[in-house]
Design brief:
Blueprint lengths: L5 E2 L6 E2 L29 H9 L8 H10 L2 E6 L2 E8 L2 E5 L7 E4 L2 H7 L1 E2 L2 E2 H4 L3 E6 L10
Antiparallel strand pairs: 1-2, 3-4, 3-9, 4-5, 5-6, 7-8
Length: about 150
């Protein structure tokens, strides 16, 4: 199989990879065969270029994440080495993970999530700087999650 190198749209690194090994920008959205799948950008290309030029990671802001909640049904993010899930459900958004009230809380709207989502009593919006990774996650059940 032949691979074709392409320049990353953000940092211009030539790579054969779908996800740029230098800055993390994802060229296209391929489905990986592993259980938990990561391969989306959550910010615009222009925003990614701004962040890259400012030597910052391409992590979405909390506001970007709230927008993503309207688009992606199954989102995850990592704080420390703990994975948290935010899943769209028929009556709102289910937020779950270690330190979330009762292990999981349902919010009716994204605004309510913004106002109330908390981990160990600290509002998520005040914890966002500690988030190291944001991604779409597939094949992941809250019931399996401890
Ligand atoms: Zn890049």
């Amino acid at each position: 199989m032949e691979y074709r190198k392409e320049k990353c749209a953000v940092c211009k690194t030539e790579t054969i990879y779908n996800s740029c090994p230098h800055c993390g920008w994802v060229r296209t959205c391929l489905i990986a065969p592993n259980k938990i799948h990561y391969s989306y950008n959550f910010i615009s290309l222009n925003r990614a270029k701004e962040l890259y030029n400012a030597r910052k990671s391409l992590k979405p802001s909390f506001e970007d994440f709230l927008e993503c909640m309207e688009v992606y049904a199954e989102l995850g993010f990592v704080i420390g080495n703990v994975l948290y899930g935010v899943f769209g459900i028929s009556k709102g958004h289910r937020f779950f993970g270690k330190g979330v009230e009762n292990g999981g809380v349902t919010f009716n709207t994204v605004d309510e999530f913004y106002e109330k989502a908390a981990i160990n009593g600290v509002l998520l919006r005040n914890l966002w700087d500690e988030v190291s990774e944001v991604n779409v996650i597939y094949g992941f059940n809250e019931e399996e999650y401890e």
